[in-house]
């Protein structure tokens, strides 16, 4: 299929940042009923956050917090400049609700694909059956090694699953923006068709201008549009573009990016191992997927930052909204005007306050549109009040960091001078660092006043270094500095 100007490319970011596990009461039938009630209660085609929350609580049994998450994430994804008032286009929001069926469909398709691959493998290598070799279920634990090799490297498959979902649900997507949802083949206006820019990549012209039918008539039937789109919709072979910085497959490396390279761009970090990524800029959105033992620092994210399917990673950022899903033994240091959103099967995730201290961070946040503490004091405390989405095991997948375990993040000298204390961090954590530093200074003073001779100093230094190495090994912290030293030597 030639990808000319009339083809429609699926927006991958809507699936990366906007989709959660399907609420148990959300089916195609209940969704249509919900959409009808929302459209009936809308005023001039708009609904408020309170109208949505009332319907979501009543018809989907969502909590008020969960309904707020859906609404806020939609506003981030649908509007380049979010309206000051909590109000959205009802038909475009209806499209977003249809996308929440994705997880159910993706699980089914993944199982079918895994079953097909297993059958093919067993037929080609029958002797391996006795060894118990098989492809894992998408529902397997994220701690399973097989999952790490199968699910945690599925970026291209994720794109194909999104493509299959759009193809199989195209009629439903068109129905919810039509003039009459009760009509088996309803009409759709050019204005309503433009709502699909939530799902298809933005072009220089309204989407309706790409459809020949709209050149001669203001309304087109669902069947005609479905047939036309089905032949021209495609998923990108890869998610790189001029507006996106992709960091994929890094292995034991250090990457430093500045404002010139990343300003206002989307950042996608995927399939990286034992690496360090530092970005001192205000970026548009961040997706961190399928990484292992990776430390990521990003100064500011104007939109959504999502960590998914990661293991033993550290993520430090100031963002408008942060999502953490299906991750194991990760630490996330957060500064945000919205509480962190937890979804999927998280295990051993630690939530913590922001821990960097760059002197020009305030100006970077201003560029990114992330509010300062002075304008929104809750930002530095929201990390400790996460919202869990559609989970039956509330509070079991994460823990909150205690002040005694809090340390400042050491950043590259290229980022400029550091403040003496961390910024945008709760006072009790700042005080914990001050107490620790005061204790170290008292020990240094005591040593300096001891009037040790050269031999005593040598033995003391050996003892300190020995105990420090012992602490590094016993706490599991030895790997990071050793890897950094190797990387610096290589450079």
From TrEMBL:
Residues 236-370 form the C-CAP/cofactor C-like domain. Belongs to the TBCC family. InterPro entries: C-CAP_CF_C-like, CAP/MinC_C, CAP_C_sf, TBCC1, Tubulin-bd_cofactor_C_dom. It comes from Stentor coeruleus. This is C-CAP/cofactor C-like domain-containing protein.
